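Thread: farnesyl diphosphate complex, take 2
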Amino acid sequence: MFKNTQDNQQLNVDNIPAHVAIIMDGNGRWAQKRHLPRIAGHKRGMETVKTITKVASDIGVKVLTLYAFSTENWKRPHDEVSYLMGLPVKFFNDFVPDLIKNNVQVRVMGLIDQLPAQTQKAVNDAVKDTADCTGMILNFALNYGSRLDMTMAVQKIGRQVKAGILDPNKITDQTIDDNLMTSFLGQLADPDLLIRTSGEERISNFLLWQIAYSELVFTDVLWPDFDKSVFEQMILEYQHRDRRFGGIKTSK
Ligand code: FPP
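Output below.
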């Protein structure tokens, strides 16, 4: 079945990527272009998160994973880090009622216990308050790094081997999936589509294991300018890709 996009193109509603992951980049440049402080870009970026959450949920995306703060982002100036740490507080204060109304469940992955107390509280409260929602999962990567995730998974697996409860010869892809921070997503752990905004074309330590067969789509649009129409373009681009997962195309 097809539905018209905002720009009058045909979106196949039976081929919506179940898991969309986004590297939300370009907030700083958006602000600089307007001679505003960088945090103005993050503030506007937070509004984009609200818009895209609604659009993704309406379109039938099942998991939306957003890279909100990486383990490397601590290197930024103190004021910017503080502002970024305050954003989830603002965001969830404003937006949890809408999330509940739209049946969206909030989840987080990353080293949450290293965040300032009020950020932890905002995040944990949002997870609790939306726990009964059964629609789209809005999964924030916060103080997340994929190498850290993989290192921790290897440590967990190593401990199981040492304890004699896991035979090293029985370690499979599934064992690794089960020990990563995305394990709670089960079959939906691997993104079908990974989007990066702002013209940069790199992965920046995001979901390295999980994107083995993801379709990667890049746009020059800066995150604060990203909107429904650009998101739909990215989904259309995904729908034109030929996903083979290492196999060959089968004729229909
Ligand atoms: C990258 O842009 C963006 C970030 C490091 C932060 C992303 C955060 C948001 C979009 C808001 C998050 C909202 C919630 C609810 C947690 P950049 O600063 O690297 O931009 P630049 O490359 O142009 O400098």
